[in-house]
Amino acid sequence: MAWRSSGSSNAALIANLAENGLIKSDRVRKAMLNVDRAHYAPELPYQDSPQSIGMSATISAPHMHASASESLLPFLHPNSRVLDVGSGSGYLTHVLANLIEPHGKVIGLDHIQGLVDLANRNIGRSVEGKELLTSGRVQFVKADGRKGWPEGGPYDAIHVGAAAVEAHGSLVEQLKAPGR
Length: 180
What we know:
- By secondary structure, this protein is an alpha/beta fold.
- The protein has helices at about 10-20, 25-35, 60-70, 90-100, 115-125, 125-135, 170-175; strands spanning about 50-55, 55-60, 80-85, 105-110, 140, 155-160.
- Helix 4 links the parallel strand 3 and strand 4 (about 105-110).
């Protein structure tokens, strides 16, 4: 049903994702509704499809962000620490930050400095995003995602949005038990 979930606005996109059963919880619906995808996707932001963001990277389709958020939801609480490996545009990092309000922290990790810079610019396009950066609740870091970011752990949840051939032990070591 993803191909039927596109909308003419962020609100329409999120409503369609929920109506089609791709967003199941009210928490995920609200978190995604409060992040305007137009700040992160350069063209057709409300289309439910992946899009190029440059530097040989893409922003995933919104239904994939909804699926990731729903999957991690049991581990996302007001004080959670989350690592987003392959944070790219910064969109999902922002959504995850909304899911762990008011005191949690999300670290977006990417191995390309240009994507780290892009994510910082994108999240800074909204007042809420700027506040997440200045408060330190969101941080974007250039690093090898296979090694994670031990300085910020241990993590309640780790999302790997970048292509990975295998599960890397260093990421598992940075995950709390229980964690996902």
